[in-house]
TrEMBL record, chain A:
<comment type="function">
    <text>Transmembrane (T) component of an energy-coupling factor (ECF) ABC-transporter complex. Unlike classic ABC transporters this ECF transporter provides the energy necessary to transport a number of different substrates.</text>
</comment>
<keyword id="KW-1003">Cell membrane</keyword>
<keyword id="KW-0472">Membrane</keyword>
<dbReference type="Pfam" id="PF02361">
    <property type="entry name" value="CbiQ"/>
</dbReference>
<comment type="subunit">
    <text>Forms a stable energy-coupling factor (ECF) transporter complex composed of 2 membrane-embedded substrate-binding proteins (S component), 2 ATP-binding proteins (A component) and 2 transmembrane proteins (T component).</text>
</comment>
<feature type="transmembrane region" description="Helical">
    <location>
        <begin position="149"/>
        <end position="167"/>
    </location>
</feature>
<dbReference type="InterPro" id="IPR003339">
    <property type="entry name" value="ABC/ECF_trnsptr_transmembrane"/>
</dbReference>
<dbReference type="InterPro" id="IPR024919">
    <property type="entry name" value="EcfT"/>
</dbReference>
<dbReference type="GO" id="GO:0022857">
    <property type="term" value="F:transmembrane transporter activity"/>
</dbReference>
TrEMBL record, chain B:
<protein>
    <submittedName>
        <fullName>Possible membrane protein</fullName>
    </submittedName>
</protein>
<dbReference type="InterPro" id="IPR010387">
    <property type="entry name" value="QueT"/>
</dbReference>
<keyword id="KW-1133">Transmembrane helix</keyword>
<feature type="transmembrane region" description="Helical">
    <location>
        <begin position="82"/>
        <end position="102"/>
    </location>
</feature>
<feature type="transmembrane region" description="Helical">
    <location>
        <begin position="20"/>
        <end position="38"/>
    </location>
</feature>
<keyword id="KW-0472">Membrane</keyword>
<keyword id="KW-0812">Transmembrane</keyword>
<feature type="transmembrane region" description="Helical">
    <location>
        <begin position="142"/>
        <end position="164"/>
    </location>
</feature>
<dbReference type="Pfam" id="PF06177">
    <property type="entry name" value="QueT"/>
</dbReference>
Length: 265, 172
């Protein structure tokens, strides 16, 4: 198996690491919703304080959070700039055609920037403290109520775990095929667009057929072992709701209520 | 498998494992080109796999799932996991249904590229919603950049999927 690390998980024993994946998942969704209710200094400040406490309790160094910002830096600059140039009201400092910069627009730009930071921080905490497999388990638990309407949650969960299982395998195979084609003289890194697409053919075709072969073999193996349905699968790791989850939920809910009270209506 | 586990085009173990490895393929391709895969001007080459929805409806589930897992790594995490994945699901369903009425494979793939590009307005709306009072300028700016990225990657994907389909029967 490849030593490639999927996702951004950092092992640890912090409070956040020990929480159950389903509650971490739900808390991050809830937090993102609350962020959209924030609309003044005090609401953003209280959410920032909460997220800083979470970051400290996750035991993850701040450098990892900065890394999470890097891929989105252009998106952030783009959105904040448009926000500054297009929002109206307040004391106008600069004005040109449809564009203007005022004190209100600068403040709004600042809010949008903080909003991005908050979302990036919460999702970084989630992915750094939870393995993809645990998140998949969390998703299964969260979707369980859909079973009532006959949605095949277990089938989906099984597909999730098979997919995650094959990521390192396919990664390895891709590496092998790349090397094999390179040794035959294929140049993947340079040339025109047309040339690069042509170079991708001897990479993707074997990768695809290889993947389908894995699927065929796996299904034969599963059927040979008497696999009939994905509903009665047992689990190696069982994540239970703990006191830590309850305490975190109470804290998050309190901050949510606080935000609703102190926001501008 | 019993009838309860029947999910959009997945009715037996073979369908299930095939869909799962295609999800894995989507994740692998997203990760290999990770630096280009997220953000406003994104060239997520795995989106080229969207064209598979033309061949079999099981790939609708497969790619939606792959997109969901890949979005776990996105810096906008929860937001992308819901909105981005939802966009993919709706786009793939439309591609699968619309292309049933088209006979020629190149035309089917062309339709799939256009549909995929069109639906990027959902992702643009997600980005625009983040910048609330400048909604429309942000929306059109983001729509333009994401649509260009999607059009390029899905066109490349369509060519590659077409070549794969010559050697492997993707319908079965």
């Amino acid at each position: 198996m490849s030593n490639f690390l999927f996702g951004r998980y950092l092992p640890g024993k912090s409070w956040v690491h020990q929480m159950s994946p389903q509650s971490k998942l739900m808390l991050s969704f809830y937090f993102v919703i609350v962020i959209f209710f924030a609309n003044n200094v005090w609401t953003y400040a209280s959410l920032s304080v909460l997220i800083l406490i979470v970051v400290v309790m996750s035991g993850v160094s701040i450098g990892y959070f900065l890394k999470g910002i890097r891929p989105l830096i252009w998106l952030i600059i783009f959105t904040v700039l448009l926000q500054i140039l297009f929002s109206s009201g307040g004391h106008v400092y600069w004005h040109f055609g449809p564009f203007s910069v005022s004190d209100t627009s600068l403040i709004n730009g600042g809010y949008i920037f903080v909003r991005f930071l908050l979302i990036i921080m919460i999702s970084t905490v989630l992915t750094l403290t939870t393995t993809p497999l645990a998140i998949a388990d969390g998703v299964q638990t969260v979707l369980k109520p859909l079973k009532k309407v006959h949605f095949p949650v277990d089938t989906l969960a099984l597909m999730l775990s098979i997919a995650l299982r094959f990521v390192p395998t396919l990664m390895d195979e891709m590496e092998t095929i790349l090397n094999a084609q390179r040794s035959r003289g294929v140049d993947f890194g340079s040339g025109s667009l047309k040339h690069r697409i042509q170079a991708a053919v001897p990479l993707l075709v074997p990768l695809f057929t290889g993947a389908i072969n894995h699927a065929e073999n796996l299904s034969t193996a599963m059927e040979a072992r008497g696999f009939t349905d994905s509903e009665h699968r047992s689990k190696y790791r069982v994540y239970r709701w703990q006191r830590k989850d309850t305490i975190s939920w109470v804290a998050f809910l309190l901050v949510g209520v606080l935000v609703l009270f102190i926001r501008n209506n | 498998m019993n009838s309860k586990t029947n999910l959009f085009g997945i009715s037996n173990v073979r369908d299930l494992t095939k869909a799962a490895v295609v999800s894995a393929l989507y994740i692998v391709i997203t990760m290999v080109f990770a630096a280009l895969s997220f953000g406003p001007i994104q060239f997520r080459f795995s989106e080229g796999l969207n064209n598979l929805a033309v061949f079999n409806k099981r790939y609708v589930v497969a790619i939606t799932l792959g997109c969901f897992i890949s979005n776990m790594m996105s810096s906008l995490g929860p937001l992308d996991m819901v909105v981005g994945t939802g966009e993919t699901l709706i786009a793939l369903l439309t591609i699968n249904i619309v292309t049933r009425f088209i006979k020629s494979l190149p035309l089917k793939l062309a339709a799939s590229v256009l549909i995929g590009t069109f639906y990027m307005f959902i992702v643009a709306a997600e980005i625009a919603y983040l910048g609330n009072s400048a909604f429309w300028p942000t929306f059109w700016g983001a729509y333009l950049t994401t649509a260009i990225g999607e059009f390029v990657t899905m066109t490349i994907g369509a060519v590659l999927v077409y070549i794969i389909s010559l050697r492997y029967d993707l319908n079965k």
